[in-house]
Design goal:
mainly beta, 4 helices, 328 residues, globular, ten-stranded mixed sheet
Length: 328
């Protein structure tokens, strides 16, 4: 065999591997990616509602569900999230600063659990897990900030937009990709200047631990060609009136005792074991209610620093945003 041919035989597999390494990633199988959308209505909450792209949707624990209640043995109240029926809960808040008037569109979703497996090992394992997504609009109804956080106050992420004034950004903010708890998120989303409501923000949610894996914009009329499910849109208040038996209702949250304001059944034994002693919070990691203000519900802190509980409390959005460097 000639020397050039020998070289070609050796080099060809390497060239093939190099070519394959640069191919775009294949789309996940259709049964492993699911888009949850909200029906189009003439309200801000429906017009700007995010799309949730869920990984590994063949697993029930990765499907957006509906917080529900039933009676167990001995008429014990059981609170759970039903993955067969998706519901997105939403609320509209306003706030004002010297720079202008703003509206927060707040969306809340829940999953039945983060599995308590050992491979993979999820620190945040527990039941009735939730996430919050906040779209901050200026007085022209242009999105200036996207915020995501788990309903325990952890894994907080911010993404500004092309509508965000430069003086609102935290000092030194980088507009490229950012790493947030090991996930790669955009540092800025570029909206169309003429019709921001035609852009749908898509939150890609990782299977298993339900962290936000990516955030991107899609044309409202041309969402990716994956399986889609329309979720019901309900007010936050519905979470405090879950149907239970004959003409009865109960709250998704504890209404008395040391866990008042926390989601029922949301105990996080692993986080308590590893983190409660140095974070000075026995209920660390437990999902909770997001109150309308600091007189409503439990403190919704987003920083693990014990001395920053009040400053990072999401119930007061202006103070919360200022703590994290945003200058509204």
């Amino acid at each position: 065999m000639s020397t050039p041919l020998k070289k070609l035989i050796v080099i060809f597999p390497l060239l093939l591997l190099a070519a394959c390494a640069n191919l775009p990633p294949a789309h996940p199988p259709e049964d492993k990616l699911l888009l949850y959308t909200i029906a189009d209505e003439e309200t801000l909450l429906s017009r700007y509602a995010p799309v949730f792209a869920i990984e590994d949707a063949q697993e029930s624990s990765n499907r957006i569900g509906t917080p529900s209640a039933k009676l167990g043995p001995g008429k014990e109240e059981i609170i759970y999230v039903d993955p067969k029926t998706p519901t997105v809960y939403a609320r509209e808040d306003q706030f004002a600063t010297r720079k202008g008037q703003y509206t927060n569109l707040i969306y809340r979703i829940h999953f039945e659990e983060v599995p308590d497996s050992f491979f993979p090992y999820y620190l945040g394992a527990g039941k009735n897990i939730g996430l919050l997504f906040i779209i901050t609009l200026n007085n022209e109804n242009e999105p200036v900030l996207y915020t995501s956080v788990h309903t325990c106050g952890c894994y907080l992420a911010f993404v500004p937009t092309s509508y965000t004034p430069a003086d609102v950004l935290p000092k030194g903010w980088q507009k490229g990709r950012q790493t947030v708890y090991s996930e790669s998120l955009p540092g800025l989303l570029d909206h169309r200047s003429d019709a921001p409501e035609q852009d749908k923000v898509v939150f890609v949610i990782r299977g298993g631990n339900h962290r936000v894996k990516d955030i991107w914009l899609a044309d409202k009329g041309f969402l990716p060609d994956y399986k889609k499910i329309t979720a019901d849109l309900q007010p936050f208040g519905a979470l405090q009136m879950l149907p239970l038996g004959e003409q009865r209702a109960t709250s998704f949250y504890e209404t008395s005792g040391p866990r008042k304001g926390y989601v029922k059944g949301s105990h996080k034994s692993r986080e308590r074991l590893y983190m409660s002693w140095w974070a000075f919070d026995w209920q660390i990691g437990e999902d909770k209610k997001l109150g309308k203000n600091k007189y409503d519900g439990v403190t919704f802190y987003t920083s693990l620093k014990p001395w920053a509980r009040e400053a990072s409390d999401l119930r007061d959005f202006v103070t919360f945003a200022k703590y994290w460097g945003w200058n509204f």
